[in-house]
Amino acid sequence: GPGFDLARVRADFPILRQEVRGRPLVYLDSAATGQKPQAVLDAITRYYTHDNANVHRGVHILSERATQAFEDARETVRRFIHAKDVREVIFVRGTTEAINLVAATYGRKHVGPGDEVLISAMEHHSNIVPWQMVCDAAGAKLRVIPVDESGALRMDTVDALLTEKTRLLAITHVSNALGSVNPIKELVAKAHARNIPVLVDGAQSVTHFPVDVQDLGCDFYAFSGHKLFGPTGIGVLYGKLAMLESLPPYQGGGDMILSVTMEKTVYNRVPHRFEAGTPDMAGAVGLAAAIRYLESVGMQNVSQHDQWLLAYATQALQSVPGLKLIGTAPHKTGVLSFTLEDVHPHDVGTILDQEGICIRTGHHCAQPLMQRFGVAATARASLALYNTPEDVDALVKGLNKVREVFA
Ligand code: PMP
């Protein structure tokens, strides 16, 4: 079973109550973005209705409240990922900006000519392109850990790929396109044995199971609020304090300084050094509300539901003739990527949409991974804590309809 009252959790997400195209909405695209519980919507409204002001500057009561709300949100994030120190939590726009921040600071400082950055074949474009840019600028080389036929990381290749030239291992915790879960702890141990720091793309992991950055031991961890059932425009970069303190600033501007003269600027302390300009206060408040919501359900329960529904969906999809699952790694989360014989994924998505079923089709911002499996695109159904076996049944019914249309 799901480990919590699924009907009650589902009722907390108002968007799911609607009919689309004359049918109850079936939302199976949470890997793209998550829906928002009422608690998040309320927290954002409350912030703008009662507390809104700019942070860290005013002497007045509203500025004090806004600053308090923003810094409380930072503490909520710290607790959620089990960071040691609240200063290790930097607010950014999302996973993409978090990775670009590390590329612009750590990458610029530490990656030089002839060096290497190691990523994997299952990365989202946002954990490929910033490193290509760093390598191009530095004259360094991007190296890639391959994946096997099931979509699991080829752990047997890692030792040889971590060399004395490797400056960083940047790798996803969970593949957005396949759901594969990577053994981060083991990878960190291998990298740290060679003094190589590790950045983890956590965009698809924090939504599915408990994450403890101290236990993982990684140096950086990045994720987006909007996938975690919070608002868009807010995300988090976790970095170990000593690492963050050793890095040059990212963007220049207000709030990231202690003093400025025309000759010289003294940069602010961590984390403010990396947060130039007015931050997304309401976004941080909304993200904190999403985290509190998830804590109330319990991330262990969220994980149990994910594995339960994934098993159900995997079996149900296998009953559809001509359907081929891509991504069958032994350790995976609720992502079902597939192709349907003789039907273009885009047509699968379009016909399902007519049935009120939302899935994603395309390359999922992971074109090299698609190439690895010899496809240009897949159809992807992705699960979240509000999805039910009925959602999966509707998908299977919809896919059988697709087959009829193309028969
Ligand atoms: N990494 C992974 C694994 C993702 O799934 C995504 C979002 N699809 C990103 C990075 C980028 O996240 P965002 O667009 O929120 O910055």
As residue ranges, the low-confidence spans are none
Ligands bound to this protein structure: 4'-deoxy-4'-aminopyridoxal-5'-phosphate
Give the helix proportion (percent range): 25-40%
Strand order of the largest sheet: 4-10-9-8-7-5-6
SS content category: alpha/beta
Radius of gyration: 22 Å
| Strand residue percentage | 15-25%
Measured between the Cα atoms of the first and last residue, the distance is 36 Å
Number of strands: 17
Coarse shape: globular
- Number of alpha- plus pi-helical segments: 14
Main sheet overview: 7 strands, mixed
pLDDT averaged residue by residue: 97
Explain this structure.
It is a single chain. By secondary structure, this protein is α/β, with parallel strands linked by helices. It has helices spanning 6-11, 38-51, 61-81, 95-110, 129-138, 158-161, 184-192, 213-216, 241-245, 281-297, 299-317, 345-354, 367-372, 389-406; strands at 19-20, 23-24, 26-27, 89-92, 116-120, 141-145, 166-172, 198-201, 220-224, 235-239, 257-260, 265-267, 323-326, 335-340, 357-358, 360-362, 378-382. Strand 13 and strand 14 form a beta hairpin. Helix 3 (61-81) packs across helix 10 (281-297), helix 4 (95-110) packs parallel to helix 5 and helix 11 (299-317) packs parallel to helix 14. The radius of gyration is 22 Å and the shape is globular. The chain starts with 5 loop residues before the first helix and ends with a helix. The mean pLDDT is 97. 4'-deoxy-4'-aminopyridoxal-5'-phosphate binds at residues 94-96, 124, 126-127, 172, 176, 201, 203-204, 224, 365. Belongs to the class-V pyridoxal-phosphate-dependent aminotransferase family. Csd subfamily. This is Cysteine desulfurase.
